[in-house]
Amino acid sequence: MISIVTPVYNEEGNVVYFHDEVTKVMKGVDMDYEIIYVNDGSKDRTDELIHQLADSDPHVRALTFARNFGHQIAITCGMDFAIGDAVITMDGDMQHPPELIPKLIEKWQEGYDIVQTIRTTTEDAGPVKKMTSAGYYAFINAISTTRVTPGGSDFRLMDRKALETFKKFREHSRFIRGIVGGLGFKQTSIEFEAPARHAGVSKFSMRKMLHFAMDGIITNSTLPLRMAFYIGVLAAVAGVLVILHVLYCVIAGQAVPGWATMTILISIFGSLNLMGLGIVGEYLGRIFEEAKNRPLYWLQDDTASHADNPYRET
Ligand code: UDP
Ligand code: MG
């Protein structure tokens, strides 16, 4: 049995179309399936629509978050509830083409535990998004121990075995690509071209995108902390040289000038200090979030659909 997990946030223009397309594809695959829609606190008719789908199609399960928790958490919730032998996560806006599902399943049947997909192009991504994305992946791979494939997406298949391991990762700041990359098992990937959205606009605001990018870096590596330390060491060495220079000037009786040096040094070291503090703060903030140990998500209707979930959070 295959579980398809789809997070939906204000996707009233897409869910029904998406559902029809996925259903068509799944009818062609000789396997039982379920489609789990996780409504991530939508403010439009998405919730009503997924519940209508659940009423008319026994393959559908509809889960509704009590508020918006974000794409990564919504996927996680769907995976917690999935009962299939393999789970496929995919976006609900048709940017992850349902026609690829049989290919993912084929790879799984060949014996792969994780089948990742890689975007070669995205139709509606501008040059700026493409460039920042490429730069970002280069940076994250330079600083982290596990590899994150450039163009990696959250459209992937995971076998039950890999899924059960993934479910043990309960951190709040999550960059699923990084976690999955580090899981090991037998992984493979297939490439695809992401078409433009079917309807609506991207739900990732600049702010969400930046936060997500920061999570990717911080949850994957402690190198920025060490960098702050190394930069501090370099600054200290430079400081010692400056002290020697100042002492020399005093002894040589030329101690009056130096206003320019002072100003420059204060501003450089002042900003280095703040930068270091900022990096520490980013980690500290996340430690605080994790230490509170709140549930990852909670549902609007904590009854029937929740009862069978081993990861039930109260
Ligand atoms: N999404 C979500 N919660 C959010 C933002 C997005 O569940 O806070 C869903 C959205 O409905 C879609 C998927 O995540 O199914 C990907 O979002 P989107 O298409 O907006 O991202 P993009 O493709 O622009 O990166
Ligand atoms: Mg999209």
UniProtKB/TrEMBL annotation:
Gene Ontology CC entries for this record: plasma membrane
InterPro entries, A to Z: Glyco_trans_2-like (IPR001173), Glycosyltransferase_2 (IPR050256), Nucleotide-diphossugar_trans (IPR029044)
Pfam families the UniProt entry points to: Glycos_transf_2
Keyword Iron-sulfur appears in the UniProt entry: no
Taxonomy, superkingdom: Bacteria
GO molecular function annotation: glycosyltransferase activity
Keywords for this protein: Glycosyltransferase, Membrane, Transferase, Transmembrane, Transmembrane helix
Positions of transmembrane segments: 228-253, 259-284
Annotated membrane topology: Multi-pass membrane protein
Compartments reported by the entry: Membrane
Domain Glycosyltransferase 2-like: 3-164
Signal peptide (UniProt feature, chain positions): none
PANTHER family given in the database record: PROPHAGE BACTOPRENOL GLUCOSYL TRANSFERASE HOMOLOG, UNDECAPRENYL-PHOSPHATE 4-DEOXY-4-FORMAMIDO-L-ARABINOSE TRANSFERASE-RELATED
Protein name: Putative glycosyltransferase YkcC
Source species of the chain: Dialister hominis
Gene name, Swiss-Prot/TrEMBL: ykcC
